[in-house]
Design goal:
Elements: H1 2-63, E1 74-75, H2 76-81, H3 86-94, E2 98-102, E3 105-108, H4 115-124, E4 130-132, H5 134-140, E5 154-159, H6 167-170, E6 175-176, E7 179-180, E8 182-187, E9 199-204, E10 207-212, H7 214-223, H8 231-239, H9 246-255, H10 259-272, E11 292-293, E12 299-301, E13 306-308
Helix pairs in contact: 5-7, 7-10
Length: about 325
C-alpha cells in the first residue's frame, strides 16, 4: 500500500512538472509573440513619427522665407544650425525638394537664384568680408556707361586680402538672363584697417546684400585702371557722380592706401568740375611724392603729377612729360 502511494505521488509529481512546463512554454511563446508585434508597432510608430517630422521640416524649409529668403542659396552649415541633419538634407536632395548648387550649398526646387542670392549666403551665413564693388556697385546705384551686348557682363566682388570665395559659388554657372556671368574677385586692402568704410546695403528681391557706396565704388574702379579697367569708361562714370558726399569722400581718400587712386580720383573730379570737390579737405589726405604714370604715351598733369591719356588735359605740361 505504501509502495503504491509512493508510485502515485511520483506520477502525479511528474505530471505536474509536465503541466507547468507545457504552460511555461506556452507563456514564453505568447510573450515572444506579443514582443514581436510590439516591436513592429514601435518600428512603424517611429517611421510614422519620422515621416511626419520630415514632412513638417520640408514644409518649414519651403515656406519659411524669413530664415531663408526666396531667390537665395542656403549653405548646409546654416541648415545644420537650424537643426537639419546631414542625413535629412541628403534625403531632401534625393527627393528633389532641394537642388545641390555645389559642395555645401543648396537651393529650393523651382526657385530662380541669381548670383546675388549666392552673395547673400556668403555674407550672412558664412560671414565673409566680401561685397559687390567697383563698376558692379555703380550699376546697382544706377550708373552705367558701356554695355556689352555679346556677354552677360561681369560681377566685381571685393574682399580683404586672404579671403577665399567658396567653390560652390565660383564654380557655379551664374547667368544674367540667358547670358553667362563672369565673376571677378579682387583681394585688396585698399582701405587698410577701414575695410568696412563706405559700405552700404541695398535690397535685391526679397533680401539685402552689402555693396560699396558710390564714393567707395569709384575708388575701387580706379584701383583697376589701366589693367582691368579702361580710363575712358572710368572718366565717363565719374562724370555721372555729381552728388557725392564730401565728408565720406574725404574719409575714404584719407583711408585709401593707393596714391594712384587718390590722385586719379581727384584729377577726374577736377576734370568733371564737380561742385563737391571744393568741400574736400585735402589737408587731411596724403598724396605721396613723385610722378605716377597711369598710361603710356599720355600727357602729364603737373597738378596731380600723373600721366593720363591725351585729350584730358587742356594745357598739358609737355616739358614735364615723363
Amino acid at each position: 500500500m505504501t509502495a503504491l502511494a509512493g508510485t502515485c505521488a511520483k506520477y502525479i509529481k511528474r505530471e505536474m512538472v509536465c503541466f507547468y512546463a507545457f504552460y511555461y512554454t506556452i507563456g514564453l511563446f505568447l510573450c515572444a509573440f506579443i514582443n514581436y508585434y510590439l516591436q513592429k508597432v514601435y518600428f512603424y510608430a517611429i517611421i510614422l513619427t519620422v515621416s511626419i517630422e520630415i514632412s513638417a521640416n520640408i514644409n518649414t524649409i519651403m515656406t519659411d522665407t524669413d530664415a531663408w529668403p526666396q531667390g537665395t542659396i542656403s549653405t548646409t552649415l546654416a541648415l545644420h544650425k537650424r537643426g537639419y541633419s546631414g542625413i535629412l538634407i541628403d534625403k531632401y536632395r534625393r527627393s528633389r525638394w532641394l537642388v545641390s548648387v555645389g559642395n555645401g550649398a543648396v537651393a529650393r526646387r523651382g526657385d530662380h537664384v541669381e548670383w546675388t542670392g549666392g552673395l547673400y549666403a556668403i555674407q550672412t551665413q558664412l560671414g565673409l568680408p566680401v561685397h559687390a564693388g567697383g563698376k558692379t556697385a555703380l550699376q546697382f546705384h544706377g550708373h552705367t556707361h558701356f554695355v556689352s551686348s555679346g556677354r552677360g557682363g561681369s560681377a566685381w566682388l571685393f574682399s580683404r586680402q586672404g579671403t577665399r570665395l567658396p567653390t560652390w559659388f565660383t564654380n557655379h554657372a551664374w547667368n544674367v538672363g540667358e547670358k553667362p556671368l563672369r565673376l571677378q574677385h579682387i583681394n585688396t586692402n585698399l582701405f587698410g584697417q577701414k575695410h568696412a568704410l563706405g559700405l552700404t546695403e541695398i535690397k535685391s528681391g526679397t533680401y539685402k546684400i552689402r555693396i560699396s557706396s558710390r564714393e567707395r565704388a569709384m575708388m575701387e574702379l580706379l584701383h583697376l585702371v589701366p589693367n582691368d579697367q579702361g580710363f575712358e569708361e572710368a572718366a565717363a562714370l565719374m562724370q555721372q557722380l555729381s552728388t557725392l558726399q564730401p565728408e565720406l569722400t574725404t574719409d575714404l581718400l584719407r583711408a585709401c592706401r593707393s596714391v594712384k587712386v587718390k590722385r586719379l580720383f581727384l584729377f577726374l573730379a577736377d576734370h568733371c568740375n564737380h561742385p563737391w570737390l571744393a568741400k574736400i579737405d585735402r589737408s587731411k589726405i596724403y598724396m605721396g611724392s613723385g610722378k605716377r604714370q597711369i598710361v603710356k604715351d599720355g600727357e602729364f598733369d603737373s597738378k596731380y603729377s600723373i600721366t593720363v591719356p591725351r585729350g584730358f588735359i587742356e594745357n598739358p605740361d609737355k616739358e614735364n612729360r615723363p
